[in-house]
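OP here, attaching both records as promised.
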Amino acid sequence: MNSKFHSLVITLLSDFGDVYPASMKGVILGIDPDANIVDITHSIPRHDVRAGAFILMTAAKYFPSGTVHIAVVDPGVGTKRRAIAIRAVSRNGDTHYFIGPDNGLLIPAARAAGEIEVYDISNKSLFLRNISGTFHGRDIFAPVGAHMLRGLRIEEVGGRILDFRDLDFGTGKKKCDSIYCEVIYIDSFGNIITNFSGKSLDFQPGDELQIEDIRVIFSSSYGFCEKGDPVALVGSHGFLEIAVNMGNAAKMFDKKQGDEIMIEHL
């Protein structure tokens, strides 16, 4: 066991709702009774790989080095799609492990955590004895994650691969006084999160913007505008966000995930 990177923290993310995660936890605790299991969420919209990838990317980086992240949003479960494990190492040596399906779900979070190495999970001795065609979260991902939590080297899960399935949210573009970006996530408040990085913005609080013929003020938080007024800001995730104070921006601007948005700086 490499104690430098070993941790007792294992996270779970899925679109399973409130029933199926319990059996995954049972498998993990059966292998490592000391495991500290943290639920990121099990409320990802069903089959929405991009939403799951965004939430995993925003949450995983706050966990300690050595954390094992199991994420399962898996429309292709039971098919020939691969199961993968990823090791991501940051410049300062912090290491995170990601386990799940090879459908792009893990990639943005892993890349945000550091340089990545991707492995095909093919060591069947790590799986449960009977593998369901519909629940690899319980029968493959949970036991592999628990064994890694106990110090199993990632090289022991299978061979390294380079042809994994990628997922990239893209990058919003700035042209003259306008920003062209894409909706990458809409949260439960109806806030619109775009793929334009807050680090690239030169807006100042109080600046006037125009979005879909609606005047919007750029601010540092939601409460600096009146109830029902739209506001643009950099969210806690680090991306440009459009919100409505005590309201729903997705409905006001009639936007959904994947839509394009043009934001004009007045």
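Record two, same layout:
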Amino acid sequence: MATERKQIVVSESPQLWEKSTRRDFMRLMGIGGAIVFAPSILASCSDNDDLTGPNTGDTVTIDFAKGDVAVLQFAYALEQLEADFYTRVAAAFASSGLSAAEQTVMADIKNHEVIHREFLKTALGTTNGFALTPVYPGVDFNNRTSVLNTAKTFEDLGVAAYNGAAQYLTTAANLTVAGKIVSVEARHAAAIRDLLAPKTAQFSPTAFDDAFSPQKVAGLAQGFIVDKLAFAGTIPTFVQGPNNNG
């Protein structure tokens, strides 16, 4: 008998449809909704506070035989990393060298990433959820350039991850929510690039954003995660994006 594909169906809150100013949009990206989901996916994790290196902890396995559940779990892993990073950035504002205006931008981004993380955590529930342990080798939270370059890495990766994983979603509501989240991630990426190189073409350096396969994203993200990311099940053939680099 063929493996049944499990789905999570997400319904968006009205906030996602309301018109707002750009500042309002950047300050508030609230996502809420109801979910309908079935049995667990394969995932395991533990407290790895005593481990400090990436890829040294227990294995967290995302089973792509579960369909949309796996894609949302994959997104949840990335949102945990981003939310944790910006929370640490905010905690180090006083010694970071970031200007007051830059701190405001970073605080707004932190709030967005926490909202994304908590939304996906609620959607997945205690059965399907898991907690990762981020780690930041080589990142100096007391150095503006180090912070902004790491933020650029995370935002670019997040955009490429959502763009690539969208092709595996089978439920229209989930695809809509993923599209709304990635649009915010893209605005984050543009904002960070503008802080690094104000009023230059780096704000939007290419005609099309990247789209990366889950395998490529996991490989790039692993350097910032103690837990060992792994995939199970058959991941459908990845369809390359416009930049053909996924």
